[in-house]
């Protein structure tokens, strides 16, 4: 009897898992990949769009059936996941029954969660760099700024790509050029965390603070934003202190979306998984990528990053095959990963290590060097070539 595996979401995790499942499952088994549009952008390139080094089209990811041979590609908005009946409701796209399910719906931006942020975005005094269009818009705003203060604000945790806000600060300073070098425009970063990338450990965080300081970028940790005033261009923090800005580069609050909360796997919506197998508490149901809540041995959550999403998807695909009774490798997610921090001028630092190491992650920050910048460029080329295949 043939089986059906449904994969929800065509981001890094969903695409990787669907392709891997097709390799290891029998041809008679059906693999269904569901996404609302199959139109996305390569996340690792968005900060290059912000800097002006890439266009929206250059970082577009538009996977088609030609890129996923043997996978049923279904355009549809997931309206409901019913774990009891093992069905996924896609609204007008119909209901699909599954034998195994991988949830890889990512994380969405929810600027309304921070009072005043949506109004500031609408008024043009704030921008964000978590979408290609947003990154282009923020680039243009920076380009027209002659003087004042740019504030990079982490609105809330968790958020996608732990290095992104600090990488953005470096690239904004690089874009500003003489305006930043002369002091006409300042760049400051505010985050609720005490240090950048706290899960990577204090040494990595302190090294990033030192790198920002050497560039003249201000770092302010432990600052929890409560509200944005788009008219006075001010930020109100939980400790009662106000900060002003001329341009706000915001990391909006992230949300897993209502459909994930409807599964009942977790009230907050982020889906708890086994760190090694990505299995949820419901047999046959797995989650990978940004929507998954994977706790490390020290009790902190694994950062939401594409490098982890890809590795999780590989492990989850193999575990799904084993769950269905096939002789597949017993692949486990190891927590090994690396990310790049672009500094401008063709240089990048590289953080790498094991985030699932006993007691605490063992991570080291290397660089900066031109070689790491080149590595990231190659990573971008490989991913775009892998999925933008046309018939």
Automatic annotation (TrEMBL):
Coiled-coil features, chain-numbered ranges: none
Record InterPro entries: FAD/NAD-bd_sf, FAD/NAD-binding_dom, SQRD
Stretches assigned to the FAD/NAD(P)-binding domain: 4-313
Spans traversing the lipid bilayer: none
SUPFAM superfamilies associated with the record: FAD/NAD(P)-binding domain
Gene3D superfamilies linked: FAD/NAD(P)-binding domain (3.50.50.60)
Protein name from the UniProt record: NAD(P)/FAD-dependent oxidoreductase
């Amino acid at each position: 009897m043939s089986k059906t595996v449904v994969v929800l979401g065509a981001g890094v995790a969903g695409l990787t898992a669907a392709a891997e499942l097709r390799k290891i499952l029998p041809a008679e088994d059906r693999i269904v990949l569901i996404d609302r549009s199959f139109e996305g952008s390569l996340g690792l390139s968005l900060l290059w769009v912000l800097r002006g080094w890439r266009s929206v089209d250059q970082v577009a990811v538009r996977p088609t059936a030609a890129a996923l041979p043997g996978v049923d590609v279904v355009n549809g908005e997931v309206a409901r996941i019913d774990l009891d009946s093992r069905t996924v409701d896609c609204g007008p796209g119909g209901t699909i029954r599954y034998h195994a399910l991988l949830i890889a719906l990512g994380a969405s931006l929810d600027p309304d969660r921070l009072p005043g942020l949506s109004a500031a975005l609408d008024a043009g005094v704030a921008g964000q760099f978590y979408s290609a269009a947003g990154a282009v818009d923020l680039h243009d705003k920076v380009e027209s700024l002659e003087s004042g203060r740019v504030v990079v604000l982490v609105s809330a945790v968790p958020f996608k790509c732990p290095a992104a806000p600090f990488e953005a600060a470096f690239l904004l300073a690089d874009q500003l050029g003489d305006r930043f070098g002369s002091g006409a425009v300042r760049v400051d970063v505010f985050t609720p965390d005490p240090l950048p990338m706290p899960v990577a450990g204090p040494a990595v965080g302190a090294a990033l603070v030192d790198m920002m300081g050497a560039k003249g970028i201000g770092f302010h940790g432990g600052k929890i934003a409560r509200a944005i005033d788009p008219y006075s261009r001010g930020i109100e923090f939980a400790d009662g202190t106000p900060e002003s800005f001329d341009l706000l580069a915001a990391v909006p609050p992230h949300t897993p979306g209502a459909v994930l909360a409807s599964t009942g796997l977790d009230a907050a919506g982020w889906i708890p998984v086994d760190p090694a197998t990505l299995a949820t508490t419901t047999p046959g149901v797995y989650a990978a990528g940004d929507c998954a809540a994977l706790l490390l041995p020290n009790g902190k959550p694994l950062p939401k990053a594409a490098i982890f999403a890809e590795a999780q998807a590989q492990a989850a695909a193999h575990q799904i095959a084993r769950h269905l009774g096939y002789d597949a490798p017993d692949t486990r997610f190891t927590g090994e990963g690396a990310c790049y921090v672009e500094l401008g001028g063709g240089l990048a630092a590289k953080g790498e290590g094991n985030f699932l190491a006993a007691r605490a992650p063992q991570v080291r920050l290397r660089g900066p060097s031109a070689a790491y910048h080149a590595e990231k460029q190659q990573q971008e080329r490989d991913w775009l070539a892998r999925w933008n295949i046309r018939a």
